[in-house]
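Subject: design request, 328 residues
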């Protein structure tokens, strides 16, 4: 199993600090989560049959013509490689590691490639997988260019898979509205922007025939009834969404500026900042000793990713830890 952020129990065990004494900045999940309504009284009793209203709300929110609810985009990431015969697959690197991990199985020929080299790879692969914006580096590819790549891949039966897990504050760049285009598959997550990672709910936008194949592979009852009800409320709450986008954009800029004042030139999204760090291991240990859990990338992306602090005391503690690091 690959290592991910959010492993706060590992931090507590390793450093002997109680869970309540940590600030977890390791995930990029919105710390101001949507206040989930209580599910219906029988939500835990009934089998979770698919609610058409949830797919309709997702289509309206993400602007896609057709969407399939899944148990987190992780479920789709694991399933999509099983829907193709052995193919030539290019996955961006550095990027969310689960994509390469699963495309590397099931007989596919996998190559990992930096963003700068992707344009030259489009005509020499059958599947191209990108995160847009990228996790962890925040790199972006213009949606017009991605649509062009999708058309070139589809002309020979290929796919472009675009993971937009961190795209909710940049909806203008989403390809969801174009997923009637053959070969274009877009993944969206409820966990990041809405701060509801515990729901284990995401959506796949693609042509209906491909969504039907994916649904058949995943089987029945993939999304719990309570998760469907909570997500339906969140996707329909346009007032909360608008206010939260403004709040996150402001806080994302605040985090970028805070890092800059400590000599760190970072890049990212409204939900996280990332930078290459020569002393990445030492920075990670320094922050952990201050009770701040950040994401360390040791391999393809040798650097650090920070999510947003949840409140003013946490912002102050982060500032103090950064000041202490600057003077090490």
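Subject: RE: design request

Done. Sequence follows.
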């Amino acid at each position: 199993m690959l290592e991910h952020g959010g492993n706060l129990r590992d931090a507590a065990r390793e450093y002997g600090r109680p869970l309540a004494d940590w600030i977890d900045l390791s995930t990029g999940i919105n710390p101001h989560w949507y206040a989930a309504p209580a599910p219906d009284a029988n939500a835990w009793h009934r089998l979770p049959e698919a609610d058409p209203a949830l797919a309709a709300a997702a289509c309206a929110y993400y602007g896609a013509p057709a969407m399939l609810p899944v148990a987190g985009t992780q479920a789709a990431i694991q399933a999509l490689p099983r829907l193709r015969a052995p193919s030539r697959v290019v996955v961006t690197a550095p990027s969310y590691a689960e994509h390469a991990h699963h495309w590397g199985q099931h007989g596919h020929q996998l190559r990992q490639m930096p963003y700068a080299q992707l344009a030259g790879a489009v005509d020499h692969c059958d599947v191209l997988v990108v995160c847009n914006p990228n996790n962890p580096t925040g790199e972006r590819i213009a949606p017009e260019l991605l649509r062009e790549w999708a058309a070139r891949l589809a002309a020979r039966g290929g796919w472009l898979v675009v993971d937009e897990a961190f795209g909710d504050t940049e909806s203008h760049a989403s390809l969801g509205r174009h997923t009637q285009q053959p070969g274009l598959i877009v993944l969206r997550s409820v966990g990041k922007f809405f701060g509801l990672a515990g729901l284990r709910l995401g959506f796949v936008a693609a042509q209906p025939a491909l969504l039907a194949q994916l649904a058949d592979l995943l089987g029945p009852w993939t999304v719990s009834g309570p998760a469907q009800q909570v997500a339906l409320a969140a996707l329909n709450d346009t007032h909360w969404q608008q206010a939260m986008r403004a709040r996150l954009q402001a806080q994302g800029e605040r985090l970028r500026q805070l890092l800059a004042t400590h000599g760190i030139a970072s890049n990212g999204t409204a939900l996280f900042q990332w930078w290459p760090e020569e002393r990445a291991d030492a920075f990670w240990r320094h922050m952990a000793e201050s009770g701040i859990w950040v994401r360390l990338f040791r391999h393809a992306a040798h650097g650090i990713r920070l999510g947003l602090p949840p409140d003013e005391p946490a912002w102050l503690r982060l500032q103090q830890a950064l000041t202490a690091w600057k003077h090490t």
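The chain has a mean pLDDT of 95.
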